[in-house]
Predict the structure.
Amino acid sequence: MSVKILMVCLGNICRSPLAEGILASKLPKDKFIVDSAGTGAWHSGNQPDARSIAVAKKHQLDISTQRARLFKVEDFETFDYIYVMDKSNFRDVIRLAKNDEQKEKVEIILNELYPDENVDVPDPYYGIDNGFEMVFQMLDEACEIIASKLKANHG
Ligand code: 4NP
């Protein structure tokens, strides 16, 4: 059975689609499933933000076929690991958890790089274009560590 990992941000159009594409590119597809979702529904059904698609393409990743969806409580059952992009996403997701087992699945993604520091992946939506490249680099570093751990634990 595949190990399932969910990336979560607010809109599911900027950060978590990149996190999904980056992590998926580092894992064998026959053993791991990577998905993403947002805690807000404004963009449900939409493609990732054009700036996220462009920065992914620059790094040889195609995220254009992804479509935004809302995080749902069933995701706690479906997924083994849930990575959130910032502290606000963490609060929103934890609020929906039914028990400690579900809460323990949720981690702030940059804690993989900076343990226990709860550093946010900044929301690039209203920022400058360069913010997307910065977000890509942060997520690429974090996903490298996550992929190594996952392959070691579930390979
Ligand atoms: P994301 O960025 O959470 O990285 O997808 C956002 C995209 C859209 C909005 C907020 C954050 N919005 O408010 O529409």
Summary: The radius of gyration is 14 Å. The chain has a mean pLDDT of 97. Residues 9-15, 42, 123, 125 surround 4-nitrophenyl phosphate (CB under 6 Å). Residues 92 and 155 are 31 Å apart (CA to CA).
